[in-house]
Recover the amino acids of this structure.
C-alpha cells in the first residue's frame, strides 16, 4: 500500500489509466467487483469518489497508477467510465527511459510476470484491462485476510508473499483447490521459514 500524499485530484477515464505492474490476482479482482455490487446501491457515485487511485503524471501527460490496480481493474470490468486519481508527482518532463528508472527507484513499478520473473518495462500493459492473472497474488491476498500476515508499508508486500508461495505450492493446486492452497499457505505463514517476509506474524520465540 502506498501512502497517499498528493494534493491534486483529477477525474480520469479508466480506459486511459496506465498500470505500473504486469499482473493482478483475478480472484482478488472478482472480490472487488462483488464489493462494488454490494455497495453501489447504497453509495452510488460516492463509492468511486471515496476510493481515489494514486497516480503519477508521466510522459505525454499520461496517468500511471501506482496502487489499487485490483480496484481499477474491477471498476473497468463493471463498466465504470471514470475514477478520481490523486496525483503523487508530475514527471511529464522526463523521457520514457528516465521515467521508468525513476519509478523503479521509488518502488512505484513492479515489472514481474505471473511466474515471478522480471520483465522489461515495455512488457507492462498499456491498460488495466490487459493485466495478466497471477493466481498466487490471489492466494496472498486471501492469506492476509485470513490473518496469515499483517498489513505492512513495504511496497508490493502481497507480491513478495506470492513469490514465496509460488515456490512451495503448485499452480495446479491453486487452480483446482484454492481452499487447500490457502491451508498450505497458512501453514507456511505460521512457520519460521516465513519470518523474512514483511508482515510476518509469528510465532515468535
Amino acid at each position: 500500500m502506498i501512502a497517499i500524499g498528493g494534493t491534486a485530484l483529477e477525474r480520469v477515464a479508466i480506459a486511459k489509466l496506465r498500470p505500473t505492474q504486469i499482473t493482478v490476482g483475478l480472484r482478488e479482482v472478482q472480490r472487488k467487483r462483488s464489493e462494488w455490487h454490494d455497495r453501489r446501491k447504497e453509495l452510488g457515485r460516492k463509492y468511486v469518489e471515496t476510493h481515489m487511485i494514486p497516480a503519477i503524471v508521466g510522459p505525454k501527460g499520461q496517468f500511471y497508477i501506482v496502487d489499487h490496480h485490483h480496484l481499477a481493474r474491477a471498476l473497468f470490468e463493471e463498466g465504470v467510465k471514470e475514477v478520481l486519481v490523486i496525483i503523487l508527482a508530475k514527471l511529464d518532463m522526463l523521457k520514457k527511459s528516465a521515467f521508468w528508472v525513476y519509478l523503479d527507484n521509488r518502488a512505484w513499478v513492479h515489472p514481474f510476470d505471473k511466474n515471478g520473473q522480471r520483465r522489461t518495462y515495455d512488457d507492462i500493459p498499456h491498460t488495466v484491462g490487459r493485466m495478466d492473472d497471477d493466481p498466487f497474488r490471489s492466494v496472498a491476498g486471501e492469506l492476509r485476510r485470513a490473518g496469515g500476515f499483517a498489513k505492512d508499508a513495504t511496497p508490493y508486500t502481497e507480491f513478495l508473499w506470492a513469490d514465496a508461495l509460488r515456490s512451495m505450492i503448485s499452480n495446479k493446486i491453486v487452480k483446482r483447490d484454492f481452499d487447500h492452497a490457502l491451508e498450505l499457505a497458512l501453514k507456511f505463514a505460521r512457520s519460521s521459514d516465513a519470518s523474512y517476509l514483511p508482515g510476518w506474524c509469528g510465532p515468535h520465540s
